[in-house]
Amino acid sequence: MALYLTITARASRAFAFAPSAVTTLSRSSPAIASTKATPSSPSRLFSTTEEIDTAASSTTDETANLKSPFLQTMRDRGFLFQCTNLSELDTLLSSPETSPGLPAYLGFDATADSLHVGSLLQIMILRHYQQSGHKPIVLIGGGTSKVGDPTGKDESRVLLTDEVIRKNMDGISSVFEKFLTFETKGEGGTKTKSREAIMVNNDEWLSELKYLQFLRDYGTHFTINRMLSFESVKQRLSREAPFSFLEFNYMILQAYDFLELNRRYGARLQLGGSDQWGNMISGVELGRRVDGASLFALTAPLITTSDGKKMGKTAGGAVWLNGDKLSEYDYWQFWRNTSDEDVIRFLKLFTELPLEEIAEMENWKGADVNKAKIVLADEATALLHGRECLKAIHETIDNMFKGGKGSSTESLNRIFVTDEDMASGGVMIIDLIVRLELATSKKEARRLIQGGGAKLNEIKVDDENAVVTAADFNESKEITLRAGKKRAGVVELY
């Protein structure tokens, strides 16, 4: 799932700090034609590495003395990485005259029919923003999804049809309702409250643009020289795969999104990941040059695990947020399998536990660290799927791994086979393993069996050509397949 992400090479070199550290904030020149900044400029950006380094020396006091509850939360929980004009933004967010319901946005492209856990950090930022009394705008990239974000990609994205984009938008939209409170409609139309979230689609304005008029109005504010200096562009140009003019336009469209959202909804702040930095400050400066708007950009660090892996992927594939793509049990297990080195950091980022409680857990050693992982899994799963699902998950854990009595499999991923399947000779066990997503391919399923990691109703499967027949099903018309110690699924006969 492509968030709006790009980082400038200069900012990356100057501010490559550990994500877990209290942030040092960077300001870098955008892909905008240079203009002389004056002391009264609404958004002061720096154009040299020396200026950035000088600015960095003063940011410790800035972050220590923040007044805005939102920025304090970002700082204390490890979200804060880069920001334009932090002191001005802090004043804006904490001012009684301007702060209630101040709109800020974060964009999500519709490149798949579900977000995965790599997008969860951004969703949590929006949630904290709303809980601090402000108005989140969820921008769905129905228009930019037609172009494709080149950030972090070795080759061009597959062009999506309008039908696929609409399907993907429907798939990703529902998850936000679990984390945010949206505007509701009653008699007389929409009842707008200052902090209620809204969801908008940038296809509304991008698809209406007239090409020549857009180039004349906004093309003069961007320079090819600066755009070519973006790290995402340089990486793509160094690859064998071509970098299309279509993708090259993505950063301009993202900058224009900020301008349009400010005009339509009064958005003053764009939120995003740190590899969005270049595109985001381009939007800040475009708003200043075209409309004289005082806009801000704030990024969070890109989260990796302690072993350097990107959040959102496992050996079994993406960790999806939609329940129809990943079961509640498997989502819980993802968090339970967090490494010892990551558990405290993830408790701060992906739960709402008070920091005082997390600080106490930081002193836990040995077997108690596993208790902290269970707390992390419970709290993260409850935020996404509701706390009521935890009882079934824990019952399943007890039954499968602790010798508990009973046969609850309610929280496990489940597939179905028919009497007709059984009458025609049954179903090969490797096919069931793949359908349950316990393996990504038949080849991987065979390796699982050969390694002794596959079990059918607690009996090890030795034959990779084994077939499940009607005789394998118990009175409840279901069987349990396991891959290793912690992954399992149910096959139900109906």
Automatic annotation (TrEMBL):
**What reaction does this enzyme carry out catalytically?**
tRNA(Tyr) + L-tyrosine + ATP = L-tyrosyl-tRNA(Tyr) + AMP + diphosphate + H(+)
Query: From which domain of life does this come?
Result: Eukaryota
| RNA-binding as UniProt keyword | yes
A single GO BP term for this record reads: translation
Tyrosine--tRNA ligase SYY-like C-terminal domain location is: 422-487
Q: Indicate whether Ribonucleoprotein appears among the record's keywords.
A: no
Query: What CDD domains does the entry give?
Result: S4, TyrRS_core
Example GO molecular function: ATP binding
Family matches, as InterPro entries: aa-tRNA-synth_Ic (IPR002305), MACPF_CS (IPR020863), Rossmann-like_a/b/a_fold (IPR014729), S4_RNA-bd_sf (IPR036986), SYY-like_C (IPR054608), Tyr-tRNA-ligase (IPR002307), Tyr-tRNA-ligase_bac-type (IPR024088), Tyr-tRNA-ligase_bac_1 (IPR024107)
**What keywords are annotated for this sequence in UniProt?**
Aminoacyl-tRNA synthetase, ATP-binding, Ligase, Nucleotide-binding, Protein biosynthesis, RNA-binding
Under Enzyme Commission nomenclature, its number is: 6.1.1.1
Q: Supply the HAMAP family for this chain.
A: Tyr_tRNA_synth_type1
Q: Give the family this protein belongs to, as stated in its UniProt record.
A: Belongs to the class-I aminoacyl-tRNA synthetase family.
What PANTHER family is this protein classified in? TYROSINE--TRNA LIGASE, MITOCHONDRIAL (PTHR11766:SF0), TYROSYL-TRNA SYNTHETASE (PTHR11766)
**What is the official name of this protein in its record?**
Tyrosine--tRNA ligase
Ranked from the top, the taxonomy reads: Eukaryota, Sar, Stramenopiles, Ochrophyta, Bacillariophyta
